[in-house]
Amino acid sequence: MSKRAGSALLDNYWGFCMSEVVNAHGMALVPSIQEVEMAPSSSARTIRATVVQASTIFYDTPATLDKAERLVEEATALGSQLVVFPEAFVGGYPRGASFGVIIGNRSMKGREDFRKYYSSAIDVPGPEVERLAGIAGRYKVHLVIGVVERAGYTLFCSVLFFDAQGQYLGKHRKLMPTALERVIWGFGDGSTLPVFDTQVGRLGALICWENRMPLLRTAMYGKGIEIYCAPTADSRDTWQASICHIALEGGCFVLSANQFCRRSDYPPPPEYVFGGSEEDPSPGTIVCSGGSTIVSPSGTILAGPNHEGEALISADLDFGEIIKAKFDFDVVGHYARPDVLGLMVKEIPYTPVTYVPDSAPSSKKEDWMNK
């Protein structure tokens, strides 16, 4: 979509208050729900945010990055200053795959499946990170995107952050992969739990079911998070309940982005086989229905959930709503009881091998040994 076309689309949005438009790729562009009226606040700014609901081009990372750039361009044509992509958008969420794993055994095909999946992952830093930074800078947008990160021979489910100047800010590694995800993804540690103070607000992210970990959420609240990104692979109604609760609990905006995928978005069998059923799904079968949503600090749904197809889902975030929500309930402020309850967060990185040089001062050696 050209910038001129995007501008015209934005004019139509304001002029006619339409509930949905469709871009040249057949993707629905969903503005904020018109029934929701947020009172303007003279003490806070307003930004426009978009969550992307779209599928990875599986096993083709360059094509996936091309798709990401097209979607960022379309989101910024709608006036978005922040764009959030789903979990594992770059590298792919391997839904339905078993990697040939049963207790006590791994198959040769499963090892080959992992080799191909590993080849689709990206190094951080690396050329793909530079490409994503260039996209953020080119379109002057803050970018939050789920990736499969390659670190040596271990993979991590990560989220990368970029500012509108095209600077890579940092990453969050999924602290606790869920179920069979633990076979293919490593575990993050406390050194990648950032909340970044950006031009669009205090920005952070947790991934999928780690959002159900109360102490991990509290760590984010303690850092003053305002825009809580929740890229996910969960399209169920229970996920909607979780993100609405998080918005209320944290007094923050929650932006949840999920992929919308059909069986045809994955390689065909026998190259890629969906487990869990006697027959592989037909090409048109929906294997993940999205449900991407934006929620206000009062728990009001501003946009979504969308279960119809690939979409850009946008809403205006009035930061005055954070202040109003905190008046009622500030979970790490006036509603906290530090005399009774407390949380310690260990933010140091954990490495399996530490080399202490002989030339290091004895005090420094003691510090290393006590980590």
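(the above was protein one; protein two follows)
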Amino acid sequence: MENNGEKKSDPIPAATSEPMTSPTSEQIVAPFAESIAADGEQILEVKESVTVEEVLESLQEMQETADLLFGAQDPNVCTFPEGYKPRQTVFACITCTPAPQMAGVCYGCSLNCHDGHEIVELYTKRKFRCDCGNPKFGSEKKCTLYEEKPKENEFNVYNHNYHGKFCTCDAYYPDDAHGFELYQCEICEDWYHDSHTPSKSIRYETEQEPEEKEPAAAICAGCVKKIPFVAHIPEGKDVFCHSKMTSEQLIVPEELANMSIMVSHFRERLCKCSGCTRVYDLADCEFLLDDEDDMATFEDEARKKVASEQKTEGEEMRELVKEVGMDGARVFYEGLNEFKRKFAEFVNKKAEEGNLITEDDIKQFREELMDGQERKRPRLE
């Protein structure tokens, strides 16, 4: 899934060390798939191969996405007392609230109250209040972080995402994603396959530049019909005032019927005059003028919190010394550096030989690494 041009990835733990860099020519092969030949012999087939650099870039991208989604939120706090937050990461627990029930939980509750459950990450939602532990979860399931909850959060808005369903095809993400990208509508916040919804792009720069450089907001075909002025936003950087357009002028052009609209720098182009503001109010999309609703604001706050909590290597070393002592910290860093060195040697050797790294190679490397640790353990102890 992606939002405003950025891919959405599953959260991953914080990195414990700086990523290693390797030549782009080196390749890692995905696990082999076994197939049976006509004569009954097993044949190993390579599914796909990627370079080490691509793997590291993917991991870095996953880490950055996780930081943006969770960096500004406390993993040990239920956000219910904060009310209907302008924007927060929301999850659905299919285990506790299967269809037709719809409910959402905050980041802290997803970790503390629903560990081991079937959880669907919904990215972020606006004006949502945590449901964890209310009657939707049954009489016996209570929130472990904040138990006192009302019967319902009457202003929460739900859709089929809370059943794990996405797009007009009701695909269950990620099982039914089939490799297609999904984008989130700026208005209704539902998700759609880009291949299932034809779209028109409205550029911010009139010069021919790569569109991926321009952050774009997606408005699905259904929401374009609700706020048809979107279909008339011209390309360029000018603010678009639509309050004086007649109802006839605001009709969605026939060629754009059933199409989504991708508008670069969408919120920057919206007019804030009294007439246009009234249109947003009537269309129930006044949140478009709220800076706290904007994903960019949400991500900026996450970046600031992550940056403020990052420790230097010296600070990490001092904390480790407090926990395990000087000798224990020394052993840890020796082991970490040795792993980096051996893995780099392993990859470089395969690159020099011109060989792909197979699943068996990885297993052998792990066994040799473990054997080395076993031999050193008596001496280190």
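Reviewer note on protein two: The two ends are 47 Å apart (CA to CA).
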